[in-house]
């Protein structure tokens, strides 16, 4: 379980976040509701971008990509169910197309759980209308490790609810799939500890669990086998995502160089979080949980046009059988947010090392390209 040192780190990040916000807006009262209103007001930028991109979204090429994406998800879902021997078991889904459209009208809408059978049409479950909307950048957080392994299976024996996470990346300038990036993900384990960092209560520099990097395929898709993240003090349940441009794939299965053009965090429906946290080993973590509504950074993650909550389907009718989650992220390949993506440690041939130049200030707030 994450120790007291993590509480201090998170508290420091929040202090820096509030301090930065206060300096930028002197003379205002910065309570939580005011900050939330400020962040949501900035969603107008993403809404404008959505309108500008509507023409390329409706091209024959874009429609064909959405169809192939739906078919791919259905095939992946079927494969995962077959591997678990669940082909005749009902499953549960969240956020179908109609609910997603309703969310666009009301940001941060929480959809209700829907039960489907194995005969439910694929388009009902796996269709989506989000593809060419710019995903806002978010705060990087203090536990980024540079140079992690190129791999798709991140579990390394960590106990928890299995999660197959699929992400599709679209160039917002062209509405075409992005293939020339590296996608870097990480999360804490079921009891709130991160691998790869030396802070007390974390996994340590010699660990790499729940971290990994992939290059998208021709459809702009990367897939990771991981577990549903746990929680720690001061933060809602989340998954970190970074994309690298111009990085080099090394012979030892890692990467180097390049720059970071996007950094964000994925969040999850509160009902799903509550259900997962009631299971072992999540329920052994006695640190008080922070809800989505109480986390300062969820407001930066969502806009009126972009939903940071992945769609998901339970592979069966029990969480222990796993979750298939997917999300689409529109990114700008010309963006550079290196200064906001300070890494706490780096992975070298001889193992992990602390970053002597780690900058806590820069991980405390999102870039100007946030929501």
From TrEMBL:
Pfam families, per the entry: Dioxygenase_C
**How far does the signal peptide extend, from start to end residue?**
1-24
Q: Which InterPro entries does the UniProt entry name for this protein?
A: Intradiol_dOase_C, Intradiol_dOase_core
The entry lists its GO molecular-function terms as: ferric iron binding; oxidoreductase activity, acting on single donors with incorporation of molecular oxygen, incorporation of two atoms of oxygen
Domain Intradiol ring-cleavage dioxygenases residues, every copy: 156-242
Q: Which UniProt keywords apply?
A: Dioxygenase, Oxidoreductase, Signal
Superkingdom of source: Eukaryota
Query: What PANTHER family does the annotation carry?
Result: ANCHORED DIOXYGENASE, PUTATIVE (AFU_ORTHOLOGUE AFUA_3G01800)-RELATED (PTHR34315:SF2), PTHR34315
Protein name per the record: Aromatic compound dioxygenase
Question: Which source organism does the UniProt entry give?
Answer: Glonium stellatum
């Amino acid at each position: 379980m994450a120790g007291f040192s993590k509480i201090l780190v998170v508290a420091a990040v929040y202090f820096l976040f509030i301090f930065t916000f206060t300096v930028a807006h002197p003379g205002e009262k910065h309570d939580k509701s005011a900050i939330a209103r400020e962040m949501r007001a900035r969603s107008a930028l993403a809404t404008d971008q959505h309108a500008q991109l509507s023409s390329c979204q409706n091209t024959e090429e874009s429609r064909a990509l959405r169809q192939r994406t739906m078919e791919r998800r259905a095939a992946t879902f079927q494969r995962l169910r077959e591997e678990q021997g669940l082909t005749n078991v009902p499953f549960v889904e969240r956020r179908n197309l109609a609910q997603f459209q309703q969310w666009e009208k009301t940001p941060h809408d929480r959809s209700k759980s829907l039960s489907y059978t194995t005969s439910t049409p694929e388009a009902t479950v796996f269709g989506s209308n989000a593809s060419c909307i710019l995903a806002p950048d978010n705060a990087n957080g203090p536990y980024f490790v540079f140079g992690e392994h190129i791999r798709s299976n991140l579990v390394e024996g960590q106990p928890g609810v299995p999660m197959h996470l699929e992400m599709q990346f679209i160039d917002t300038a062209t509405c075409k799939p992005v293939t020339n990036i590296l996608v870097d993900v990480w999360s804490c384990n079921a009891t709130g500890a991160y691998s790869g960092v030396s802070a007390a209560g974390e996994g340590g520099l010699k660990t790499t669990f729940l971290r990994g990097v992939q290059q998208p395929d021709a459809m702009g898709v990367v897939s990771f086998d991981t577990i549903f993240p746990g929680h720690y003090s001061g933060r809602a349940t989340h998954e970190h995502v970074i994309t690298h441009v111009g990085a080099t794939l090394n012979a030892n299965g890692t990467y180097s160089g390049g720059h970071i053009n996007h950094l964000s965090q994925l969040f999850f429906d509160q009902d799903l979080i509550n259900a997962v946290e009631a299971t072992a080993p999540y329920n052994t973590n006695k640190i008080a949980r922070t809800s989505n509504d109480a986390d300062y950074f969820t407001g930066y993650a969502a806009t009126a046009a972009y939903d940071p909550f992945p769609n998901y389907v339970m592979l069966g009718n029990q969480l222990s059988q796993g979750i298939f989650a997917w999300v689409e992220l529109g990114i700008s390949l010309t963006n550079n947010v290196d200064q906001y993506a300070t890494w706490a440690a780096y992975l070298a041939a001889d193992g992990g090392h602390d970053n002597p130049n780690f900058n806590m200030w820069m991980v405390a707030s999102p870039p100007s390209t946030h929501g």
